[in-house]
Structures are given as structure tokens and as C-alpha cells.
Write a structure and sequence with these properties.
4 copies of one chain form a homotetramer. Chain A is of the alpha/beta class. The two termini of chain A are about 35 Å apart. Chain A has 2 domains: about 60 residues, Phospho-2-dehydro-3-deoxyheptonate aldolase, domain 1 (Alpha-Beta Plaits); about 270 residues, Aldolase class I (TIM Barrel). The radius of gyration of chain A is 23 Å and the shape is elongated. Chains in contact: A-B, A-C, A-D, B-C, B-D, C-D. Chains A, B, C, D: GO terms for molecular function: 3-deoxy-7-phosphoheptulonate synthase activity. Chains A, B, C, D: This is 3-deoxy-7-phosphoheptulonate synthase. Chains A, B, C, D: InterPro entries: Aldolase_TIM (IPR013785), Class-I_DAHP_synthase (IPR052899), DAHP1/KDSA (IPR006218), DAHP_snth_FXD (IPR041071), DAHP_syn_2 (IPR006268).
Chain lengths: ~350, ~350, ~350, ~350
């Protein structure tokens, strides 16, 4: 951490600040520039609140040097984390998985869709039982009954399931039912009560980036989960909010290599939510794969026009077949490249 | 709602869509343009998911005409809502209030600060007992003990208190202790479980706009609370996230008159979080007041350098005295203007 | 275009507005909804300024139905445009090209770099002679002398060159020297004087999206050029500005399929500017290729540490060799897929 | 400037970098942290391209400490700049001015509007003769003939005029006609050819912030003008582009106190473009005034429904009368406050 002081700061004021910092157990390094004085803080800077430092009269600005995330940081954990999602399916460290299924669990057609996506090559099944909807008047999901349908499908098809948990009070229910992977949605990316609660379990967590979440905030959210003891975190880029309105979100695929650079956790991308339109899902699924994602999450529905939510972005099973063929071909290129490097 | 179809859509396909819409109880109005066909949907359009409509092959785009919020909508409730916050303090409909106090409740100094802000003219006391922090390693608040300190201060000073609730499991605790106003923070602006839970109480809710929340989403969050029965909602603009980094957030003061135009609910502005720096709090507090806000929420700390959180944006009691003088002067201009109009 | 009127509008006022619109040669279609009245405008809506319409008392909102771009619009020109860049190099309609070279032309090393990128498989040479720099104190480019070095390289290597023009007064110079492709940079994406000036030539134009430019604005900028007579426009996605700071820009790869859907013009992507860091260029080049781009623009420098500008995002020739190998492999997958579709 | 190196950097590599920096005439200050090595660069850091530094293998990140703007920087010029706009009208340093008039000069009604705005208290007249329009098919302004009408109005009313210049080839024309203040629009905020050209004159320049321009970029654009010799620069906040769509732009009023803190140049705000709707212009004009702006630019039209551009955001003369009354009242509060401080 670096504190930039006004050139006009008195020696007394600078010394006072230096001793204040050193009392917190850090070392300092003061350098006098042409237009400002710079104090470098060395040591465990989590002990100092940068905003507090910035509130002092003589301090102009404070800049972080170290990343505030520790457990999610590749610096302290160079090897890729591989998360075991159950049913023999692992993700990360060269293991690439496709999570597919309907936006919402709607009933018996879940099994029909699940069979088709498995046949096409998907290795994990998604489906929402508890749905976060912008409007209180929109369909809110089947709830616990939806979980049962997912469990049934998982059993029949021997595939791990991924489904969203929205309320800390539901976490135990998800654990009790044996949900393989709990998803934290974009709107809950900084719901710290929920993050802590899933952090207390050992169930893998698919953690989506918030709509206005920076890459660092996504990693800090992972840190919340990991600091409670659960290190089975899968990061997910699903589009961020910008000024562009031709797509539902702006797919920040830069985040894929950036997250791989900063963190050891697996990175999944969701081209369905990141585009919002069926016609853009295939090209952006391929793009995410080429960018190096460890997995994709794709919405598939047997009859998108009848879907209870997000039908506009679902692929039909036939479209998904074709997309999977091309994903495999891109993946072959990428994984060969990885071997060479 | 309007559906824009491709010019190339066959008559059969158009008729099929029209009858699908009409089966849902809506009326339609088809017009053939030069480059597209437009279907107007008349009736209760909440019965139709616009994204679903957009998923159909012949549909190019769907545009909303009506706002999706009903209870928060001024169209259906032209008069300003006045929220009674307890201790005789009302907000909205010409009643202007200043909420002041420390970011976090830290101990006995709460009372010292509370006395000073009351003397300066603040009418409500703020202070966080449960703190949402980006880092799991940062100070997380005093919890229930902090609520007790707030209650004690409220009693002594006869002022309503405003404090943040982050977890649906804590809502009953807040109600039991008699908290006057529950605050929903920016990070929980789409935490629908929490919104529903506070919606089941009768305690007034100060609802902050999300960092990437549109004005419509803020109103939909209010709608979540109101649709559960609690109509005592106070909206709060506290800055949104943009590309600008010289301030902590971008204070979207346009939101004040826009919210007044769209909704009957009171609108408060928070210049402390919206700027992030003490030196910008006064001018932006005055600006918010001039824009027509029904109230301001301002952080004040007796010793910002020692604050446990957000010290960089707190005013000292002396700064707050001066700011209150000027707020009163601006408010006098604005309320006179309102009478004239 | 659709005008949404207040429910409270009097019949007289509605009739008045209808006749005002019809006097402009358009037809109208009025429908009465539950909470508003909607007028559909049919005909050449470019004759009506939507903002003007919105200024009228009874009008609540105006929404466009047709896109405002005509010449760039795929609706009126379904087949892909193929732009001939000279030296036998075509782009668009299945023709994929890689444009590579240094950010700035710096001297004789241009030829060294050009030979290496050609050998690696690049088919067009880039290099800036006139440089737009945020600071007036930063290096501003070699100017006309740089153009000469580019022409010399183009001649020796028989490759078309792409170089940026910043000033309408320089356009004739670029034409006189025989520059193959003129680039319009992101900062000039709405410099209408410059757009019109290049529109009066027949030289192909590589048009970059502005930092805060929507996809529609990019197409409207193309429209400026095309409406002056020059239809040889190549669109370029180079990253937009968002709140994310871990990369120089946010690479909006969704724009690639969206532009292909809306327009017939070729679409190029620039992973160098879109990421800002050498280490992210290869994965994002592959992603852009997988998303269906018709070409890539990549910065290559023989000694990035000595580059006069943007060294941080340049590949070395060795890195570029490897990247080209993988681009070819991805392109093979994508073009096969295209044949099947 | 600070370079953060990887902890793994060898001593040789660090020494090599240090001597490279020192050869450029700067001093260095190396400190070894727990997780990284930090080099502080002291001296004229404009000699070093931060992106170049960042391209080096051992460098993780580079952070600026000093602002890159010099002439616009309050640090080197503590007193407020007062710009003389002609006709005895000065702005900045306590001098507050209101610039009003139509968006576009349309003909003889300019004089009618000008008389009304002067009577209401406006001290400068605005009107566009050359109009930047997103669509090439929209009205592009009267051109030189419009300038003549402005000159005529300025003469009759003895008010300085403000009008936009879009093309470096037109700057001499503006100077020859004696235009009092040349406006640079948001779309040309980084049109460096144009900035340099107006920098060579002595005519005051009203410089608008770009739609995606940071506060620092606005100051760098001012620096372009000032570095050519013209120090008569007035900064203008006119709204930035964000995700919010209920207003035309997001009015970043934080920029007013931030610009005053960072720079000595006068700061004007434009509530007409920043909101886009007549109904929000008055509250936001008052807010800008309360935030401490040195002036306001407001669109007024005698018949907004007939305006050739931007009618939706213009005030009528009657509305402007009322707004001016309230601006004066707010200004009285603010300027009293300034005296006290």
C-alpha cells in the first residue's frame, strides 16, 4: 500500500503518520518527490483501512499494491485448483466441462432435456428451482419440489447438478438433499450472509460475477466463501452491465485469462446470460472456449417458446448438438496449444 | 408492450402469434410498416414474459410501453407518500429530514456524535451495527450489541434510528428491538429474500439503489417490499458505478427528479457514499437538496481518523454544523419554489 | 417509431398530433391501452426527430422501431460485403485476414517487423504515423515521413497497409501517397468532419468503435462514410470503456455476431487495444476468431520494451508465430462450421 | 510513478531496470515488500511511458502518483483562473454566468430568444451553427450563415456568444468573425487536431467532457489547448454515458467540486444535455449551481416543438424566467457560503 501525501505536509505531520502506521506493525519507506511525498507501507496491509488513511488531511491518495485476496490468489497457490463436482466430474486444471439444461426446472420435461444434453456431450445438468426475478410478479420457481426433480434426473443420468441458492436459510436444505453444486447468482455476488453460509459447507459453489462486479470483487466474494473453509469455488463470468443495449449484458471474456492469471480457481463462462439471445449463444460459447474457459454453462430447452423464464436465450436440443460439436473442435485446438506451452 | 416482427413473417405465423397473445387475455393491434410489422399488446402485460416473446423466430424485438412497477408508480398513486419514521418524524410530501451519524456504531462515542448531530439539526440518527464489507478480513460490525447502543441513543435523544439489515434471519431481531427504519444496502438491492422479509413487517425501509441498479430496478425492488404489504419505503440514491475513478461512485442526482416523476415514494440522497471523500460531501449535499431530495443521509464522526470504517468520507461535527446551515438555506429556496409551482 | 402518450391526453390533443405527423407524409395507427395511448408511425420516420416528438406535453416517451442506419443495414443488403484492400487482399464474406505490425512506425525496424509478420502469416501491415495520444507531451508520431516508410514496406512485401488518419486536412495526403486502408481511431468515432472527408474517397476505411460507442453508433458512423459514397467500410471492435480496471478496455466480443446480424460489412477485432496486456492478447485473439470475426488487428514489435508507444500490449515476433498457428487452427474449425450452416 | 515488480524478479533484473530508469534522468527508490518489490520513480515522469514500463517481464503493474496535467493543475496555479469572454463578461473566481439560447441557430427567432434570455438574466448567448449529429441524415446546422446571425445578436444585445466548432479547418473562420467563445463538443473531446488548432488562437474555449471521458481526460484535453498557448479554457460537465436509460446522460455533478479541487479553470455545467428532458432541467440546474458551478449552459427555445434539434430538452422563455429566479436564490446562498469559508 502506498500513501501519497501533499508536498506541503509538515515534517511533524509526516513523522506522526509514519509512527501511527508503524504502531500497527508495518514498516514504512518515505520518498520525497517533486510534487508529493510518498510513503510505502510494507507488511500486513490488511491491518490498515485505505479509506481511513485517505481521510487524513495530509494524505492525497492511497493506492493498493498487493491484491486483497489471499486464498483465491495464484501467488500463494500456483497450481490450478481442480474442483470435484461429484459423479466423477472434475473441473479445472485441464478438465473442461459443459453445464447445460433449462433456465428453470418446470416439471417432467427436465428429464427429457437432461437426456438430450447428456447425449450431446454435456457433463453437468443445470436448472433453477429458486429463481431470482427482477419483478415480484414474475414466476419465482418451483422451490423444493424443483430440487427433487433435479435429484431424480441426477440419479437417472449419473450427472452432477448445478442449481441456484438465494437465501442463507435454504443452504441446509440444499446440503441435505445432496445438491452437487450450489450456484450463487449475479444479484447475490455481494450477499455476504449467503456467501458465508455456503462457505460453511463442503459443497462446491459456482460463483457468478455481479452485474457491476469488478474482477477483484469476484475474487473477494470467493475469498468470503474460502475464508469460512470451503475452497471448492468455481468462478463464472456471465456478462457485466454497460451502456450497450443490443445484448442483455456485455460478455467480458477478458475476465477469463485475467482470472486465470490472478487466481488458481476454475473459470466457467455463461454465454446464455451474457448475450440474452439464442442467435448469439453459439459464437460466444466458442469464443469463451477459445479464451480458455474451464467450462461453459448453456441454457437448453426442448421448447424455448414455452419456457417459464429466459426462453429467448435458450438453445433447442438440435442447436445444442451442433454447438457441442464445434465446442469439441475448438477445445481440441486449445488443449493442444496448452500442451505445447 | 410492443412486438416488432420481421417484414418476412408469413401471415400464418403472424396470426398464430396474435391468437397466442389473445389467449392470454390481451388484445392486439397489428400494423404493417415499411420494414417491419408491429403488434401492440393491450391489457395486463405482466401476463407475458417479454423475453419469451422475443425468443420466437418471427419476433425481432419487444419493447415495453408500461412501467412494470405498479404499487410504486405515481400514475396509480398521484399524491406523495409520507413515511412516518417514528418519534414524530415524517419524510416525503414536503417533509425534509437529515439522517446523520457514524458509518459504524463503535461504542459509547455514538451518543456523543448523536448529541452533536441533533444539535446541528439532524432529525434522524444513522449507524451501522451489521456492516457489509468487500473483504471478509475487514471489520464486520458490532452486531446485536450495536443495535442496543442505537436504541439507547434513540431513547435519550428522542430521534428515530436508521440501521442496515443484511440477512433475512435478522429481520425479526430488528423488529423486536424496535428499530425505527431498516436500511437495505446497495449490495442487497436485488437480494429478493431480504426484500420480501422486510416487506412482511410494517417497519419503514430505507432502500438504497444498487451500484449497477437502474432507476427502474430500484423501483422494482421497492415493488418487492410493497407487494408483501409494507408500503413504508424510502428510496435512496447513493451513487452508481461508472468508469470514473476520481470519486468512489458517480452520484446520479438526475435520479432525484426522475424518481419523483415516476414514483410517489420519498427520495433521500447520500452524498457521503456517492463521493467517498469528506471534501466533496458539503457541495454534493447542497446539490442533492437543490435537486429536490426529501432528505439526506450524511456520515458524521467525532474523529474520522479513528473511525472503524469509511472515515475518509465522514464530516467532523464542526463541518456538519456549517453544512447544516447551508442545507437549511438551500432548503428554504427550494421549498419556497415548491409553493409557487 | 412509436409515440406513447399520457392516458390523460385529450382527444383534441391526440388528433392534433396525428395530423401534425400525417402532414409530414407518414401514416399513423392509434391504439388505446389501459394506462396509455400509443401512436404507431409508419413511413419514412427519418423525417421526424424523436426528441422533438418527446418534447410535446402529451407525449411520455418515443421508441424507435426501425434502425436509423440504411446503407450499413443487412436488411437492405443481405449479402456480405467484401472489401478489396489492394495487393489482392480481400476481407469479408468468408475472407479472413490478419493485420499486424507495430503500434507506431518508428524507423527502419518497420521493415524487419513487417517481414516477420508476413512470414508468420499476416496478410496486412499496420503501423501508426499520426498518433492520437491522451497527453500533448507524449510522442505524436513520425507523420508524413512515417507514411513513406509504410509505402516502402508495402512495396517490398506486396502487402496492403493500414494506418490512422486523424485530421480531415490529411485525407488528401493519404490518398495521394496511395495508402491502402485508412484507419479511423476510437477517439474520432464521432468526428463527423473526418468521417465525411474519408467518405469522399474510394480508399477502404477501417472504422474503430468509440470507447463509449454503442453498436448502433458505430453503424451510424459507417453510415456517415457510406452516405458520402465510400462503401468500403470495415468495422472494428477494439474494446469499450467500463468500470473494470484490470484490463485497458472491456473487449465486447458480443459485438462481432451482433454486427454480423445487423450489417453486411466485414468485422475486425483488435485484441491488443481491447486487453492492453501482452499476456492476454493470444487468448483474446483466439476468442475473437471463434466469435466469427473476419479479421484481427494485432500489435507486434521486435522489441516491445523499446517501442515508442503501447509496448505493453505488443507481441514479440516469436509470440506472434505461435499465436498465428493457433488462429489458423481455430479458423479451420470456424470456417468448416460456416460451410455446414 | 510507481512500478510494482514481481517478488520473483532477480537482483540483476531489478538493477537493470533501475539503471534504465535513471538513464532517463529520474531517481529511484526501491523497497522490498512481503509479496512484491516496489520502485518509486522521482523526477519528470512524463519522460517515461507507463505502458512501456508495464510491458517488461518483471513488472506487474505501474501506478501514477502525479497527475499528468501541468498547466491545468491547481497545484502549480493555486488561484482561480478568470476567463474574459468579451462584452465585459468574466467567468470563474466568483464570477457566475448563465449561457442560454437555442440548441441550433434557426433564423430570425434567434434574436427573439436572445432578447428573452437576456431579460431573464442570462449573460451569454448560445446557439449552434455547425451541429454534430449522430445521423448523417439529420439536420447539420446553418453553417457560416448561422455565425452571422449570432454576431448580429451579440451586437444588438451586447452579449458574448458561445458556439461550437467541429472542424480544424473552420477555426480561422470563427476567429475572423470574432466569435467570443468557441465550444468543443463532447464528441470532439479527444479530437486532438481540433484541440491544437483552437489552442493556437486566443479565443476562450468552452470544452465539454466526452461521453466516456474521465475527469483526468477532460483535464488532459484542456492541457492540449493550453500547451499550444491558449489558457482561456472553461471546462464543462454535460453528462456521461452509463447504463441508466431514463435520462439522456448521467449528470456527474461530483465533477464540479472535483474539477475545482484539481484545477484552477472555471467549471460550467449543462443540465439540458445532461438530462435530455425539459422537466428535469430546472432541478438539475439548481443542483449544479449548489454544487458550486461557475456557470450554467441552458437550452431555451421560444417554441420547443418547432426546434430543429433537441427540442425535448429546451425550456420555454417562461420556464427559463422561473428557473433564473431560483438560480439567483441558490447562487445567493452559495456565494455567501464562499465568503464565510
Amino acid at each position: 500500500m502506498i500513501a501519497i501525501l501533499r508536498k506541503s505536509a509538515s515534517d511533524d505531520a509526516v513523522n506522526h503518520l509514519v509512527s501511527w502506521i508503524e504502531k500497527k506493525g508495518l514498516q514504512t519507506n518515505v520518498s520525497y518527490g517533486e510534487n508529493e511525498i510518498v510513503i510505502g507501507l510494507v507488511g500486513d496491509t490488511t491491518k490498515i483501512d485505505p479509506f481511513l488513511l485517505e481521510s487524513m488531511d495530509i494524505v492525497e491518495r492511497v493506492q493498493r499494491v498487493s491484491e486483497p485476496f489471499k486464498k483465491a490468489n495464484r501467488k500463494f497457490h500456483p497450481a490450478d485448483t481442480v474442483v470435484d463436482c461429484g459423479h466423477g466430474v472434475k473441473i479445472g486444471g485441464g478438465n473442461f466441462q459443459v453445464i447445460a439444461g433449462p433456465c428453470s426446472v418446470e416439471g417432467k420435461n427436465l428429464l427429457t432435456i437432461a437426456r438430450r444434453v447428456k447425449k450431446a456431450g454435456a457433463t453437468m445438468l443445470r436448472g433453477g428451482a429458486f429463481k431470482p426475478r427482477t419483478s415480484p410478479y414474475a414466476y419465482q420457481g418451483m422451490g423444493a419440489e424443483g430440487l427433487d426433480l433435479l435429484i431424480e434426473a441426477a440419479g437417472e443420468l449419473d450427472m452432477p447438478i448445478v442449481t441456484e441458492v438465494m437465501d442463507p436459510r435454504d443452504v441446509q436444505l440444499f446440503v441435505d438433499r445432496g445438491i452437487d453444486v450450489m450456484q450463487i447468482g449475479a444479484r447475490n455476488a455481494q450477499n455476504f450472509s449467503l456467501l458465508k453460509e455456503v462457505g460453511k459447507t463442503t459443497t462446491p459453489v459456482l460463483l457468478k460475477r455481479g452485474m457491476s462486479g469488478t474482477i477483484d470483487e469476484l475474487l473477494m466474494a470467493a475469498e468470503y466463501i474460502m475464508s469460512e473453509g470451503n475452497e471448492n469455488v468455481i468462478l463464472c463470468e456471465r456478462g457485466i452491465r454497460t451502456f450497450e443495449t443490443r445484448t442483455r449484458n456485455t460478455f467480458d471474456l477478458n475476465a477469463v485469462p485475467v482470472l486465470h492469471y490472478l487466481s488458481h480457481l476454475p473459470v466457467v463462462a455463461d454465454p446464455s446470460h451474457a448475450t440474452g439471445y439464442t442467435r448469439y449463444v453459439e459464437p460466444m460459447a466458442l469464443a469463451a472456449c477459445a479464451a480458455g474457459a474451464d467450462g461453459l454453462e448453456i441454457e437448453v430447452h426442448d421448447c424455448p417458446e414455452k419456457a417459464w423464464s429466459d426462453g429467448s436465450q435458450a438453445l433447442t436440443p438440435d442447436q445444442f448438438d451442433r454447438t457441442m460439436d464445434r465446442i469439441r473442435a475448438i477445445r481440441a485446438v486449445i488443449s493442444t496449444g496448452d500442451d505445447q506451452s
